[in-house]
Structure formats: C-alpha cells, structure tokens
C-alpha cells in the first residue's frame, strides 16, 4: 500500500487527513498497508486493524503501457463499519485483465471515522474526508 496521508494518530486522530510525509528514493508498495481499525465481521467480538491505515492500493496490467489506460477508483462498502480496499475481498484480477488500472482505498471506519462532536478536536466525518 501507498500512504496517501499521515497516520491519523495523536492530535490527528479525528482530524481531516494531512498530506503524507515525504520519503526518499523508491518506496516499495508490494505489501498491503494495514486495514483500518474495526470489529472482526465474523466474530463481532474481536477487533482487527490499525489506526495507521490510510493507504491506497494500485493494480496495473503493466508498468509501462503503450497507450493510456482507464482508471477505476473503488471505495469499498461495509456501512462505514467494516471492510478495506485490500484484495482479500475485492480482487483486482478481472479489471486488470480488461486493461483497467484499479485503485482501492482504506479509510477510517466506525467511531474513528465518523464521530462528530462539532468541536475543533473532533470536527466529524474524518472517514468521508479520507475518501
């Protein structure tokens, strides 16, 4: 996964996403970033994920295509309660075989993404702002 924002930790926990910190050189994005903190869908008693979860996944048919390719930006479902853009649920194979670049996103869920106290500390809807 590629970070699209700074980790929403500490003072950034309930705030709008901030630009990611720069890095030098080539950053490997062959592994998924963490999914956002959520209850395990099957057990409903365990939790999984991390608060450091603002990552994109980009799937391409080839690295240097001959012609421009269409891009599909997919936002996973789950009622703002569960899910992720990682390919365990929404594999990219079909779209990539059709010559489409697929981009998926992890965004904050549940209380970390959608608590709104209408204050400076917790202005609300951080999960929508992640998108």
UniProtKB/TrEMBL annotation:
It comes from the Eukaryota. The keyword Cell division does not apply. Keywords: Glycoprotein, Hydrolase, Serine esterase. The keyword Methyltransferase does not apply. GO terms for molecular function: carboxylic ester hydrolase activity. Residues 1-131 form the Carboxylesterase type B domain. Belongs to the type-B carboxylesterase/lipase family. This is Carboxylesterase. It comes from Spodoptera litura (Asian cotton leafworm).
């Amino acid at each position: 996964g590629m970070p699209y924002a700074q980790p929403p930790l500490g003072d950034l926990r309930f705030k709008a996403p901030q630009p990611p910190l720069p890095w030098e050189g080539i950053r490997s994005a062959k592994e998924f970033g963490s999914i956002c903190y959520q209850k395990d869908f099957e057990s409903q008693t365990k939790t999984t994920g991390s608060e450091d979860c603002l990552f994109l996944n980009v799937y391409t048919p080839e690295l240097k295509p001959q012609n421009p390719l269409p891009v599909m930006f997919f936002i996973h479902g789950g009622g703002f309660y569960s899910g992720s853009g990682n390919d365990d649920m929404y594999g990219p194979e079909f779209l990539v075989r059709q010559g489409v670049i697929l981009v998926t996103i992890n965004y904050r869920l549940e209380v970390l993404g959608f608590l709104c106290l209408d204050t400076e500390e917790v202005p609300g809807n951080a999960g929508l702002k992640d998108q």
